[in-house]
């Protein structure tokens, strides 16, 4: 009975991750509808996407640190309330400004739940079952990240943009009610709350200006002086933040956590793999809808091949992680990931759609089989489990933001090189320019993938050395 209860709790926490990551990507597909219905220009509408992501990244570490002191479940449940309320505000919004307020509330709730769901899993599952539990959590969460454009295309094919927010509301209510009665009781972890407010302010400014520089760069070009000035401000506040953290007794992040080499390598490799995963969200709608002239609904169906394969691959990889180790399983799946990425660097644009969809299945297998959560949480000592969980979510969201930037920049750079002039739009009359841009974008993805393989192989070597030392 306890095992069944644990599985239900795993699905309850994981489905909140699914909805929250889905909301980070599904809105991209709805931007054309939103700009038309709300009568706003495209560059303003993009803030509907970015303000949500910025809020999550600003607050993840805060809630991770608070969870270590007052408990994971209280914060997770409160986050569920805020996310559901934010979704309701978004669904009822008659204007851009109210929609942005709703996205801020959503981002607040999402940051609370994302910072704590992995900690809850670590709390309820014994060590020998955590690989599979993390695998299921990872797959459901990544499904939200990957399936956004596909699911968005299907929803918008028959319903209005309001429904991409309405679908969150019943799930949020069910998860909260389930948690209210079924989550285990959790004692307060610290009698007094100690918090590093200076660290929070400097970190929040650093992360906000970092993302603002990225989104401004996508809008007005990365050569613009204002973009570089904001990026410099971000770097200054990062330097202040790290200085403050080194001299605080109770820092926002205990920087000693990054001295655990395998944990740090796991976080960076997760960031890279999530960046690569976001290429499909950016490029595939252009390729299928514009280049191949497919309908929005068919595009959505084809793109659903990625999350479908992800669903199958992640729990299988989690099973093998419990038998072997996360780094070995991840290396194997990253090599599988390389197959479709190499294919996409060479694509002619005339491939049979069945073959193309088959390659998207390989993307889902490679992405789903990458065991980021087991690596991150497995290498974090018990006293760092809360902050490690929030760092895992932070690096995942950083990867999404950086992935959007690199994919968009490399796509348009490749098109500009082919055209011999600056291109920042889909070249309707010159499809070969787009294909060249797509090739170049996936070459950058291949370079990132090779870097991720090197990092995970380094983790594998340390694992092997440690195992030999114990004999």
TrEMBL record:
Domain Major facilitator superfamily (MFS) profile: 9-464
Assigned keywords, A-Z: Membrane, Transmembrane, Transmembrane helix, Transport
Membrane topology label: Multi-pass membrane protein
One function term, GO molecular function aspect: transmembrane transporter activity
GO cellular component, one term: plasma membrane
Main location class: membrane
Segments crossing the lipid bilayer: 48-67, 79-101, 107-127, 134-155, 161-181, 193-215, 227-244, 265-288, 300-320, 327-347, 353-370, 391-413, 433-457
Location within or outside the cell: Cell membrane
Pfam families, per the entry: MFS_1
SUPFAM superfamilies found in the cross-reference section: MFS general substrate transporter
InterPro entries according to UniProt: MFS, MFS_dom, MFS_trans_sf
Keyword Electron transport: no
Protein name per its UniProtKB record: Major facilitator superfamily (MFS) profile domain-containing protein
Organism from which the protein derives: Companilactobacillus farciminis
